[in-house]
Structures
1.
Amino acid sequence: MDRVEKSCKNSAGVRQNRALAVWRQFRRNKGAMIGLIITAALILLAVSADFIWDYETDVIGMNIADRMISPGTKYLFGTDNYGRDMLARVGYGARYSLVIGAVSVLFGLFVGVPIGTSAGYLGGRYDTIIMRMIDAFSIVPSILLTILMVTVLGTSLLNLMIALAISTIPIFARITRASVLTVRYNEYIESAKAIGASDFYIITKYIIPNCFSPILVQATLRMGTNIISAAGLSYIGLGVALPTPEWGALLSASKQFIIQAPYLCFFPGLAIMITVMSINLVGDGLRDALDPKLKR
Amino acid sequence: MFYDGNVSAERKEEKKQSKYAIDVENLRVRYETSSEVVMAVNGIDLQLKRGVTLGIVGETGAGKTTSMLSLMNLIETPPGVVEADHIYVNGTDVQRLSAAELCRIRGNEIAMIFQDPMTSLNPVMKVGEQISESIMLHGRVSKKDAMERAARMLEIVGISPSRASEYPHQFSGGMRQRVGIAIALACKPEILIADEPTTALDVTIQAQVLKLMKQLKTEYGTSMILITHDLGVVARMCDEVAVMYAGRIVEQGTLKQIFNETLHPYTEGLFNSLPNIHNRVASLKPIPGLMPDPANLPQGCAFAKRCPYAAQACYAEQPARKTYEDGHSVWCTAYRDAEFHIKRKG
C-alpha cells in the first residue's frame, strides 16, 4: 500500500517531471544551450528595445554631423549616411525579425497542422481533395507567392506576416500529414480505439504527440527561413518600409555604400545569420530532448 | 477495486435479456481493394456464453483477428466491408451503434489484448497514464483517482506500481504485455478478447501471462475469447474451441470434444503436426500445401485440396454444418456418410 501511495504522489507531478526531464536532456546539448542563450538574449533585446533606445531620436532621428563614421568606441557599429547609430538600428530591428518569424510560423502551424492532421487521419476522398489543393498551392514558389500577396494586400508589417504565414501553411500541412500517416496505422492507435477513445481524443493524445518532433523541427527551421524571406522582401522594397530598421531594409539601404562602408551591410547581415542559426540550434536540441526514446 | 461503468438503466436491461456475451450470426468480412477482393471471413456463427473461455484456433490468415475486430467494429471501412445478420455484444447490436455509443462500449464492456506488446503501447505516454486513460474515458473519475487505480492494476499484473511513471520502452516485452492486460482489464470488461496474447513472448513469460489471465478470469467471471495458434495454450485455458480455416469455422465444440473426439480432417492435421512427447524421434506430419488465397477461394470446401479424405463432392459445394447431440459441430461434407470417421478417432 505504501508503494501505491508513493507512486500516486509521483503521478501527481507527472507534468512537472516531464518538463524537468526534457530540460535536463536539453541542457546536455552544448550547441542547443548556446542557441537558447542567444535566442533568449535576442528576445530580451527585442522586448526592452524601447527602454534602451528612444525610437524617435536614436533609431530614426538623423544626425548629419556624425554621418558615415566607422565602427569605433563612440559608435560601436558605426553610423549610416544620415548619422544614425547602427547599433541602435540593428538592435531595434531584432524586434521586427523575431515578431515576423514567430507570428508567421504560429499562424502557419495553427492552420496547417489541423489541415494535415485531418487529411492524414480521415484519409479517403477528403484527403485527396485537401492535399491536391495544397499541392496546387505549393506549385507557386513560396517567395513568389509572398511577393504576389504583398503586392495585392499592400506593403505593411501585418501584410508581410500574413503573406509569409500563408506560404508556410502548405509546408506544415504536408509534413503533418506525412507524420500522421506513419503513426495512424500503429497498433497502439487500434488499441486506443479498443478502450473506447474517440477520434478527437486519439488525435490530440496519440497522433499529435507522436508527430510532434518533425513538426517542431520544421517550425524552428521555418522560423529561420521566414526571417530570411522577410528580410529579402524588405530588401526588394516589399516588406517593411524605411526608415523602420528592419534588417532586410537596413541591408537594402546599405548596399549602395558597400565599397565605402561595408560595415553598414555587415552588421544587419550578421544579425540575421546569428538569429536564424541560434533558433535552429534550439530546434535541434528540443527535438533530441523531446524524444523519449533517446532518454537514458 | 474496479471502476463500475456508468451504464444506463436501458443498457442494463438489454444486457440482462441476452443469454450470450457474444452472439454473431453469419458474419462476413471482405477487403475490397482496386485490384482484388479479399474474402477474410465468410459467414461464421459464434455464440459465447457468459463466463466461458472460447479458443479460436487456426493458421495465419484464417480470419481470426478480422472476425474479432469486427466484434468491436474496429475494421477500417473502406477497404473493409462487414456484413452480418447480427453482431450482438452483451445484447447490443454493435453494427447499429453510433461512433459515440461505440466508444462507450469499447473498453468498458468489451476489451482487447493485442498481439504485439512492442507496438500496442503509445511510445510517448507513460504506462500509468495509458492505464488510467481507459478508466477516465469511461467515467467521471479525477485524474488522481484514475492514476491510483492504474497503480493498483499494475500491482495486479505483477509490476511494481512505482514504475507507473515510466515509458513503454523502459519495459521488457513480457512486462509490456502485462501492461496491455492491465489496460484491457482496467474497466473490468465483461468480455475480453485476447488476440494471440502470448505469441510475441518467450516461453517462461508466456506461462506467467497465461496464469495471470486465468486467475483474473476466475476472479471476475469475464467471458473470454482467446485467439491463438498454439494448441497447448488452448488446452490450458479454454472451455470451448472453434477451429477456423479460410474464413470459416470448420469445427466447434468443447475442449474435450475437439481434443479427444476430433471430427474435422483439418483439426486432425493440426494435431498431427504437433511434436509427440511420447515418441520424440517420430517425424512431424505437417499438412501438405498452403491455405488458399483468400482473394481467390475455391467454389467448394477450401480445405479439399489439402484433405486426405477429399471426395468429388468436396470440390463442388460448401460443406454444411452438422451438429451432434452433444453440441459438437463440424463443417465437412464427408460426414453425410454416417460411417465416415477420420483416422485419429479410430
2.
Amino acid sequence: MSTATSELAAVGTGRPSAVAMVEAAESRRRWLVLGLRILVGVGFLAVWQYASGRWIDALLISSPEAVGLRLWRWTLDGTLWNNLSVTLEATALGFGIGCLFGFGLGLLFGRFQLLAEVFDPYITAFYSIPKIALAPLFIVWFGIGIESKVAVSAAIVFFVIFLNTYSGVREVEPLYVHTTKIMGGGELAVLRYVIIPSAASWVITGLKVSVPYALVGTVVGEFMSSNSGIGYLIATASGLFNTASVFAGIIVLALVGACINSGLNAIETKVLRWRGPG
Amino acid sequence: MTGTGGISIQGVRKTYVGRGREVLALDRIDLEIQPGDFVAFVGPSGCGKSTLMSMIAGILPVTEGRILHHGRPVTGINREAGYMTQRDAVLPWRTVAQNVELPLLLHNVPRAERRDRVASMLDQVGLSAFGQAYPVELSGGMRKRVALAQLLAYGPDTLLMDEPFGALDAQLKLLMQEQLLRIWTERRQTVVFVTHDLAEAVTLARRVVVFTGRPGRIKAIEAIELPPERDVFRVRFLPEFEAAYTRLWDALAPEIRQGEAAEGRAA
C-alpha cells in the first residue's frame, strides 16, 4: 500500500518520490565515506613509504614494502601460522578460563550478598594490582610454555567478567524476579529465565572489553619469556633492530584483534536483538 | 466455602522502619473476599492499598495478623495467584509468544499444549500477528495485553492487579477494562484490583473498599448494584453507577483532602 501511495505521489507531481530522494542521498553519503577512508589509508602508506630512508632512518620505521614482504615470507615459510597459532591458543584458553570463573563467581556473589560483602575488600585489593605484574610470578610457577601466558590472560579476563557479571546480577529488576516466582518459578527458573538473560548485556560488554586484554596478557607473557608466539617474534626482532618484523608482528596482532571484535559485535547484535534499535 | 481463590485478611497491621523510626502503614485490616468476587481497593495515595496487595502476593511480610489464601496462610511468595502491576513485568528479552509461554514452562506443560494455549491466548487479546515481536517493539497498550495473556495462560483462580491500566490513556483503558471484564465473566476468578480511579473501580468491581489516609484502615465497603455483565462504555450513564460513585466519593474525598493538607504542612 505504501509503495502505491508513494508512486501515486510521484505520478501526481512528476518528480521522484521523497523516499527515493532521501535513500539516494544516504547511499551517496555512504560511498563518500568509504572512498575517503580508502584514500586516508592509501595516503598514509604512501607517506610512510616515501619518508622511509628519506626523512627518517629506515632502520627505525622500516617501510610498507619491507613489512609486506616480511609478512609474505612468514606466510610462505609457516612462521606466521606456527607463532600465531600459539598466541591464539593461549589467548583463547586464557579468555575461556577467565570467563568461566568470572561468570560463575559473579553469579554466586550477585546472588549471595553476604559473600560479596565479606570478600569485597579482598577483591578490590586484587583488582587494583596491575595483572601484568603477575606475569613474572606466573612464569616462575608455570614455566615459559603456554601455561604462563594462559594464566596472565585468564587473570585479566577474570576480573573484567567477574565485575560485569556481578553488576549485571545486582541490577536485575526485582519486579521481574517477583512476577516470575508468582507465576510458579523456583530459584533455578529465576536464574535461567530472568537473571542470566538480564545480566547478558553486561556480560557481553565485559566480553568485548576483555578480548583485547586477553591478547595483551598473552603477548606480554611472550615478551617476557617464551620460545614461540607473535609476542616472541616481536621481542626477538626488536632485539635485532629488525623493524620490518616488529611492524609485521604488530599488524598481525591488530588484524587478530579487529577480527575477534567484529565477531563479538555480530554476536552482540544477535543476542541483544530484544533491546531494539539504537 | 464454594469454589477456590478465597482470600481472608485477618487483623493485618504493617509497619515500616525507616530513618530510625517506625511508621504505621496499615492498621487493623479485616476483609473477607469470597471466591469469584471482584473487589477494588481505592484510597488516597500512600494509604497502603498497594502494600496490602503486595502482602497478598507474598512479596512483603505482614507485621501482625495473617492473610489466608485458599484457606492457607500466605508466608512466602504466593505462587497460586496471578499478579499484574502498573509497571511492565513482561521480560524484555523474550518475544511476546515466549513471555506468554513462560508460566506454562514453569508449570511443566508439555510443548504441544504450550503452543496451542499460547496461540489461543494471543488470539484472545488480539496479538496473533505479534508473537515473534519483542516487547520493545510494541506500544504500552499492547504490552499490557501481553501481560494479560500471560496472566490468563496458566489460569490462576486469583488475579492480583495493582493499578494495571494506570499508565494507559483513557480510551485504551476502557478497551482493557472491557477485555478484563469479559474474561472475568467467563472464568469468574477472584480479582483484587487496586486503582486510584474511582470510575474504574465502580465500572469493574462488585465491591469497592475505601481506605483512609495513612495509616490505612478500611473506611467503607460499597457493594456495586450493577449487573455483572456490564458494558464498560455505557455503564457510567446508569443511575446506579451515579449513586455508587457519589457515595464512594463522599467517603473518599475527606481522606484525599486530609492527605493533601498533611502534605502541605510537611512541605
